[in-house]
Specification:
The structure is a homodimer.
Chain A (H helix, E strand, L loop, with lengths): L1 H18 L4 H5 L9 H20 L14 H20 L9 E5 L5 E5 H25 L18
Antiparallel strand pairs in A: 1-2
InterPro entries (chains A, B): DinB, DinB/YfiT-like
GO molecular function, one term (chains A, B): metal ion binding
Protein name (chains A, B): Putative damage-inducible protein DinB
């Protein structure tokens, strides 16, 4: 599972760099589908990863509103802070943690129970799914998207 | 890893059912980004999963041209055939297979070497990425996309 997180972290960094070459207007433009803008989608995937993994760590996440991160560098900073807080947990992941239970209150106030392994995979699928949306929007504004390839990223080099 | 494949197979099936409610014209319409049409994208992710996993099994995949699958039911049939051929390998996956080497000739004729574990994750990221693209196109045509949530799918029920 760690390799998939490492893949996604690389891809996320590449998308931040991609954002440096795009106007703020395009980054914040409301678009069809997903979370509505390129920058908000990137904020959302950082935020959701941070929130769930904080939950698994039994910590209360300290989350800024989007308005405080609505520029590429501020979003990079937020992402770096979240990464520092959650990556030790992900690097320490082992199969014995798969079936631990997390109780979580959903948007309607109901309590739900999830396996830790379920949340880890949910986070991964969520991030990769949203990155797919960014690639469509990238073509809409006439720019080459970041490659989604997991191969040829050096992730499996010794 | 198996749970992520099971997630994706459920999502793929849901998208096939979603296609039943959309006109053929919309399904085949050329769109911006991704593989260019909804139906071709679905064909592509089935095809790429089938090709890579056949490679890992040392088998030569028997692949039809897209034109033979350019209807939802034909694509379902192709997907079912591929699934029958490759799912035993995925269900039999174990950590001892991670570092096996696959030699593969790329589009420019060069030979490349990949770890089996790298290819398995590449396939997963590839499928989820393309599904994210479908969700944007779904909104474009005014339809609710299939949820990308991995939680609440019963994948971790005993």
């Amino acid at each position: 599972m760690l390799k998939l997180f490492e893949y996604y972290w690389q891809v996320r960094k590449d998308w931040f760099d991609w954002c440096d070459l795009v106007t703020e207007k395009e980054l914040l433009k409301k678009r069809s589908g997903g979370q509505g803008s390129i920058l908000y989608t990137l904020f959302h995937i950082v935020d959701v990863e941070y929130s769930w993994i904080s939950d698994l760590q039994g910590k209360k996440p300290q989350k800024p509103p989007f308005e405080d991160c609505a520029h590429v560098q501020k979003l990079r900073d937020f992402s770096a802070r979240c990464h520092a807080e959650i990556s030790p947990f992900i690097y320490a992941w082992n199969s014995g943690m798969e079936t631990r239970n997390l109780s979580d209150q959903n948007e309607t106030g109901e309590w739900e129970s999830f396996k830790y392994g379920e949340i880890m995979r949910h986070v991964l699928a969520h991030e990769i799914h949203h990155i797919g949306q960014l690639s469509v929007w990238s073509r809409e504004i006439g720019k080459q998207p970041i490659t989604a390839n997991l191969i040829r990223r050096g992730l499996f080099d010794i």
